[in-house]
Structures are given as structure tokens and as C-alpha cells.
Amino acid sequence: MKHILALIVAVIGFASFANAQTDIRKVDFENFSFVIDKETIKMKAGLQENTCTKKDEDGIEIGDIWNVAKDSIAFGDLDGDGKEEAIIPMFAHVCSANAIINEAVLVYTIKAGQPFRLPKFDYFDEGCVQGEKDCNFARTPAVSVSYDKITKSIVITTDFATDDDAICCPSLYRETLYKWNGSAFVETKKGKILKKEVEK
To answer: Three-state DSSP class for 170?
Structure first.
């Protein structure tokens, strides 16, 4: 009987070990449950589940839907422990159009064999206050993320559009670095607003 119990315990322990995550890159964030502003966002194939199910009197879908794409996720060792973290940009757009109405950047690490979210941080960059002198551009509602190996930092790239830009194509950008200090992400470097190179 003791041998049987020991075998059962060993099998359960092995199953738990098999389910434990050790590599953040193996986490399927396109089919994952996030918590954003106390709301649980369950994703399936990169899109929020159970949304865009209602329609208005004209048959147009109403509401909004969060989405995440694995190709937009950046990975890097932010805390210097030799293991990577995942930097995940997420966007919510209205169901009936591509207009982005909300966004978030979430950072996950592996803790006790499971994905664990690090504290959110304020990365929002207005660029300049509309109406002020020399302010002729506005922030576009989307950011991209990358990882800087030298400083072990998150790089947030914010786009800005001038009055002369097409809606699709903002011509300016700025990179801002955020570093993990052990308890929070802090801004360590804010670059200049630069003009994007035109592809030839």
C-alpha cells in the first residue's frame, strides 16, 4: 500500500512538473487570460472571446474587442536573473472598425512555474500639449515595444502624426526606455522626437 501511495504521489508530482513553465516564450499569450483594470480578458487566437456579439438597429456590431499578436511581443531579461520576460502590447478596437480605443503594455515573467505579471507602468507619451506653441503633432493611439540588451530595458516606441500626415502613416516617433528596479518600472531615458525614414 505504501508503495502504491508513493507511486501516486510521484505521478502527481511529475504531472505538476510537466505543467510548470520554465520558458516564457512557450506561453501561448494569444490563448491566455489577462487582467486589465480588474477586468479578465480571455483571449482565443489573439482576440478577446465573447465580444462583438451584439448589433445595433443597422446590423452593425457594437462594443470593443482586445487583441494581441505574438509577432508584436518582445522578450528579454529585464531583471538580470538570466531568464527572459515577455513584453506584451495589447490593443482594443471597436468591433465595427479598426479604430483603437484602448491600449496596454503588460510584462510577464515566470514565477513558481507559472506566468506572473509584473506591475503596470505609465508609458503614455503625449509628446506635446495640443494648442501650445510649436505643438503641431499628436500622439497616435498605438505603441510598439522592443528590448534593449545593453541596458536590459523596455523600449516603448510612440508614433506621432502631424497635420500633414495621412491617417495611416504618422511621420514622427520617439523611443523611451524603462528599466526594472526590483519593484517597479522607471523611465530612464526619453529620446527626441524624430522623423521616420521614408522607405524607398
So the answer is: coil
Q: Helix, strand or coil for residue 75?
A: strand
The grid coordinates listed for 98 are 479598426
Per DSSP bridges, beta strands 74-76 and 64-67 are: unpaired
HEC letters along 104-134: EEEEEEEECCEEEECCCCCCCCCCCCCCCCC
Model confidence pLDDT, tens digit, residues 151-197? 999 999 999 999 899 988 999 999 999 999 999 999 999 999 999 98
User: What are the Cα distances from residue 35, in Å, to 3, 91, 106?
Assistant: 43, 13, 10
Q: Which residue(s) pair with 43 in the sheet?
A: 48
Q: What does pTM read for this prediction? A: 0.85
- Read off the amino acid at residue 196: K
- Contact predicate 114/20, CB 8 Å: yes
* pLDDT tens per residue, range 70-99: 999 999 999 999 999 999 999 999 998 888
Q: Among 169, 119, 116, 107, which Cα is nearest to 142's?
A: 169
> What is d(CA 139, CA 43) in angstroms, rounded to the nearest whole number?
27
